[in-house]
Specification:
Layout lengths: L2 H20 L11 H12 L1 H19 L4 H13 L5 H8 L1 H9 L5 H12 L7 H16 L2
Helix pairs in contact: 1-3, 2-3, 3-5, 5-7, 7-8
Length: 147
Amino acid sequence: MTSESEKEFQELLAYVGFFATEIWGVDPESDTHPARSIEATLRQFGEPMALIGLRQAANDTLEETLRWNVDARAFVDEAFRAGGVVTVSEIARRYSASYKRVLKRGQIRDETEYYVINAVLIDQGNGISAGERTQLQSLIDMYDAHL
């Protein structure tokens, strides 16, 4: 794997492990912990397949967070940041199909999309550019104006 893929692998492994332990309450030593499944995939099929599994696991966590309000997401993002793990909002920015659709469309259509965009916007620790931050704020402002 490239160094970029290796970095992604390590970030996602830490993220999925932290999410499973802290949010889902799965004992890190349990065979049902996602990190154990990833380790088994890594041994059996190698890093490329394990990375695919990690991406899917990250997407599964995003599905759960769609119903969280802004305050809950901000609280969890801070806990992840304090734990030295990439935030839920950053994972949403990178991997969420909903996030990408909103950017492409240039419009927020519903409350779920609003929460996804707003969470990325308020996460000051993520890697978005000033231009993307301005674009997100504009989307939020347009949505708020139509309420």
